[in-house]
Amino acid sequence: MKVRNNLAQITKKSLCEAINLDMMSRLARDVFSEYDLHERTGFPSTVPITSQLAAHHIVNDAIAENRFLHLAERLILLDREGYMGRRYPVPGLAEIVKQIRVEGYVWDEEAELFMEDPRVRRTPNWGRLLDDDEFRFALLRLDVANNSKMVQTHGDSAMRGALEDLRQIVSRCVEFRAGRIWQWEGDGALAGFLFGSRVMSAVLAGMAVLHELFLYDRLHNRLGEPLRIRAAVHTGSFRYHSDPEMLVKQEIVQETEEIESRLTPVGSLVITPAVAPSLDRVILERFRPVQHFAESRLLAYEVRMEGT
Amino acid sequence: MRILVFSETPDRVEGALKAALPKDADLEILPLRGLKRTVQKPLNADLVYLDIADIGEAGLGRYASALASAEKLPWGVLDTAGELTDPARAFFRGARDYLGPGALRAGITPARLSEIRAFAGLECPNPAAPEPAKRFPGWDRLPEGSEIDVRFCYVSVGDPEGLRERIGEKRLRKLREDFAGFMASWAAECGGIAWMRDPEGTLLLFPERDEGTSPVLAAFRLILDRALVGYEVFRLEVPLTFRFSFHAGRTVWRRPGSTGTIVSGDVNFIFHLGGKYCSDGRITLSAETEASIPAPIRDLFVPAGDFEGRRILASRKFRD
User: In terms of CB atoms within 10 Å, which end of chain B has fewer, N or C?
Assistant: First the structure.
């Protein structure tokens, strides 16, 4: 994120007015791991550092290392929640938030993080995640069932068209709910959700894809047979990487793929036991146990009509 | 130029046609087995060809009637190897073009496309054909007090008693208010207008013919998405569903908000159909609006008896 000089100056001033040097050190260590003010400023540990100088270095380092939003988030939480039972009102915070908004970022109340304003741009890292940032994500993985057989039957040209249609459907359903498609390889997609009610959003996006495909098969599908997918939603902590290859190597992503490919009935969206507790009952009640793998405690949703 | 080809051997056809088509032409090759179902849907193409390699004249007979059913879309025969001994038989069956080896060498030009369309009667108006229906002028331009032919749609939230029990009378009232506002925007997207309300639901009007999105299809989509709409739009923690009823007929036009008392058998009927006959999670239609059901979802509607002397159809229900 581009940090204008005015925003940097306001933040430095707010830091100085809100907290003492000791608190500044703590705050900095929340933003950067193992942050040492003396090391950063070049002063020996025996020489005291002024609050102004500390604030100057912390803000400049945050800007240089692309962690300014992380610093602003810590200030917001400090203002709201205090620290160790003590309140720390942060003067000028409203102006900081306002100027960040001008740069195209909005505050997400649920995640307590800034994210890029989707009306301005949509990037895979929501304009803020850095490699190795660890968060609790919700993942939606989906894949076309029997893709190879369908390519054999319908030919490359027809299948390419159908997969492009699917890609558009999935993008619409995922991005509408603040998710991001991280990988689209051949006939399968991996989408991540971090903001808002991330687990609900991932599940609703998966349901929406199934609904859209139900209509697509009737209105636009030219293959002569339904385009059927398997989809799975899982949640847990992992480290973000801008390289999709690094992303998919992580255990939770592999688990999600495994569940989607091995345990998900064709035409269904499956949710794992880790997902279910985060769903509101009105949505959870739409899911039923996966009958063939009852011991897995997976739940599945599919579009069903009476008389079918 | 967008050309659609149905073929058993897409790779061979792609090679043969690429050289014959202009560079900006868009070619899509689809499997033969899906032909009948595909041509029932609105097709974004200028021409359709049936590749008769491997199926011969017998195959031509099998697919000709389905191809002829695609309205305003001329079709022809692709015969790369010159297999048809009597190409005229293709024209007897309704084809408008024959692409044999000779024509393929000459190439498919925009001029040929024009000739095909003219031959199919699509570019020269047929004097015997009925006059095309007049375009709907827009709700603002309808003269107050004039008699108009419209489609009526009465819509309400489903299971009102269950909702009252779960969320209470006050929230149900608020939900109905919000729902009416939501449906007014929804109707506008399909070229319709929210006309009047009663305590349970809203009466929407749509032009006689679809102006863009089909309201029946949009209603079907809304019922399919009921769980998402209930949660994401209305923030409900309990299940929500809808009831849609459609009927076509005449009424006196008065602007929303100043309708006063309208004397119209059709208006009475739609209120009765929506209030007394329609059930949760279904679209109920009088026979007068049967043509409004888009062909691709027609099989999802079944006869639902008679009501006040009119034949009724209802959509099949999604299972919860």
Answer: C
Q: A153 and chain B: CB distance < 8 Å anywhere?
A: yes
Same domain for B151 and B115, yes or no, is no
Residues 6+ apart with CB under 8 A from A145: A228, A229, A230, A266, A267
Nearest to A304 among B237, B296, B318 (CB): B318
Classify residue B130: in a domain, yes or no.
no
In a domain? residue B127: no
Task: Work out the minimum CA distance from A148 to partner chain B, whole angstroms.
Answer: 15
Q: Does A156 touch chain B (CB under 8 A)?
A: yes
Domain-embedded: residue B125: no
Contact A82, A106 (CB under 8 A): no
CB of B35 within 8 Å of a chain A CB? The answer is: yes
Give every CB contact of residue B222 below 8 A, 6+ residues apart in sequence. B186, B229, B242, B244
CATH number of the domain enclosing B55: 3.40.50.2300
Strand-pair partners of B194: B204
Residue A238 in tokens: 């992992």
Q: Do B29 and A218 touch (CB under 8 A)?
A: no
- Interval A93-135: pLDDT, tens: 999 999 999 999 999 988 899 999 988 889 999 998 999 999 9
Task: Indicate the pTM of the whole model.
Answer: 0.77
Coil vs helix vs strand at B280: coil
Q: Which domain holds residue B182?
A: 139-315
Task: Please report the ipTM that was assigned to this predicted complex.
Answer: 0.85
Cβ separation A303–B297 shorter than 8 A: no
Q: Evaluate the CA torsion angle B203, B208, B212, B218 in order and state its sign.
A: positive
CATH label of the domain that carries residue B206: 3.30.70.1230
* Rounded Cα distance, A134 and A114, in Å: 15
Residue A286 and residue B317: Cβ atoms within 8 Å?
no
- Strand B282-286 to B301-307 pairing: unpaired
